[in-house]
Each structure stands twice: as C-alpha cells, then as structure tokens.
Amino acid sequence: MEISLILAEQIVQLFLILLMGYIIVKAKLLRPDDSRSISVVMVYIVTPCVIINAFQVEYTPQVMGGLLYSFAFAGVAHLLFLLIARILARPLRLDVIERAVIVYTNAGILVIPLVNALLGADYVIYSCAFIVIQQVLIWTHCRSLLCGTGGMEWRKILLNVNIIAIAIGCALFLLRIELPDFINQTLDTTGSMLGPLGMLLAGMVIADTPLRQLFTAPRGYLAAALRLLLCPLLTVLLFRAVGAAGLIPDGKNILMTVYLACITPACATVTSLAQLYDRDAAHSSALYVLSTLLSIVTMPLMIGVYDWLI
Predict the structure, then answer these.
(1) Which tens digit of pLDDT belongs to each residue from 3-33?
(2) Residues sharing a CB contact under 8 Å with residue 97, sequence separation 6 or more, in sequence order
(3) Each residue of 248-283: pLDDT tens digit?
(4) How many CA atoms within 13 Å lie on the side-chain side of 129?
(5) 98 or 12: whose pLDDT is higher?
(6) Burial 143-173 (b: 16+ CB within 10 A, else e)
(7) How far apart are CA 263 and CA 230, in angstroms?
C-alpha cells in the first residue's frame, strides 16, 4: 500500500496545481482560450524533452528486454480496451465519444511524471511503449471512429512530435550515444514541467465548464466508471491470470509503468479530434474533466489493487 499512498500524494499535488489553473481563469487573469498556448509548449517542447531524456540510460540486455516486454503488454492492454468498448457499445448504448473515452487514456500527460515520481527516472523509458501504441491507434482507430471513415493518416502518425522524439530517443539508445551532461540536465529540467503544465491546463479547461452540468449528467459517470474502474480492474486481472509480473526480472515494476497508463483518465486528444470532425466536443470535454477529477480517488485505489494482486 506504500505505493498507493505515494501516488495519492502525487495526485493531490497535481490537483492543487489544477486548482490554480481554475482560479486564474475565474479571476479573469487568463482566458480559457489561453490554455492553447500552454498546450503548445507542453506538446512541442516539454514532452519531447521528457521522452528523449528517458532513453538516456545505459544500454543493457535487461533494459532492452524490459522495453520489449512493456511494448507487448501495452499492446495487450489496448486490445483489451478495444474489446471492452466493442462488447459494451450496444447494451449500454455507448456513443462514439464514450467508446473513445474507454479506449484512450491521458497517459501522454500523466504517466511520465507519475512513473518518475513513483519508480524513478530509470523506469520512464518503459512508459514510452504505451504512448507509442496509443498514438498509432489515435490516428487510425480513433480517427476512423470519430469521422466514420477508414484508413490511416501515416503522415500524422510519423510526424507526431511524440513519435519523432521516441524515434530520436530510440536511435540514441540503440547506438549507445550519450548526450553531454549539460544537454541532459536541460532536458531533465524542462521535462519536470510536464505534470504541472498538464494539470494547469486541465484546471483552465474546467473553469470554462459549468460544474453543475458536469456533475449532474448520469451518462458522464457511466463513461468515467468504465474508464477508471472497469478497464483497470480487467487489466490487472488479466496481468495476474497470465503471470505477467514473473516473466522477466523486475517485472512487477516494469509492468506498473504500463498499468499506470491504463488507469489514467480520458484522453485530451479525443476532444481535439471531436472538434476537428464535428462530433460532440462539449460532451468529450465534459468526460475529460469529470474523469480527471474522479481519478484523484480512483488512481490510488487501482494501484492498491495492483499492489495486492500482482
């Protein structure tokens, strides 16, 4: 339970930063639209720094094996989420936004700072596996789901800044190229802003959402429960059933980097795609905000379950 308590402390800290974002908009010091500027800094500067820095670890067969292991189970988790969304779509009358919320998590913003805080910088490299798989699915399955057409936007996949950063990081790792200390320190200092910026951004978005409307919509709680409770529970049960943690040395900690990504709230990118393809962006935004707030309680709970079962 020690890990769940540490996670609870981290989430409370992030929640206080979220509250700052909420207050600064309500005080009219910034407008909700100003969050776009923060988003650009976070996506195009901070996140790539975190990813490249994550791959600046010594190449060993154990690290390479752990990375392949995390890719395998990140893929398994995504397949499970896709299956859950497909099975429940008809009986629960899930719309396309709710189905996307079940499958896609906000791992890109939350998982790296959480892994860094809970397990240490050496484990951040393994969290990139989930991000890579999710980015590919966002521009294939999620795009198809929201716009109603098939096909892959390979250009957007390959030119996505996170994918480029991962490619650079992988190349440096595989070629065993170590960056100078001052560059690594710059990357590390810049990357440390990821969690705070992400929650500041969430707070600014929440400030533009009528809270009464947000908390009185029953459908919102259904989608949030599926994302924050059902998906994580089925994931951890699957991991236990196949004995995933015992497949490689240090498997429990490496597997946790995947599991942390699985228990995060709804993905902010789904809202952006909903706007792009003329879907119900307000509904998507509401689910993002509601699931983010509820995750303050559910994430420590789900880590407690993981610590108990794995």
Answers:
(1) 666 666 766 777 788 788 889 888 888 887 7
(2) 146, 270, 274, 279, 280, 283, 284, 287
(3) 988 999 999 999 999 999 887 787 677 667 677 677
(4) 29
(5) 98
(6) bbbbbeeeeeeeeebeebebbebbeebbebb
(7) 10
Q: Which domains can be identified in the chain, with CATH numbers?
A: 2-309 (1.20.1530.20)
Written as one letter, the residue type at 169 is G
What the block records as the tokens of 51 is 């990813």
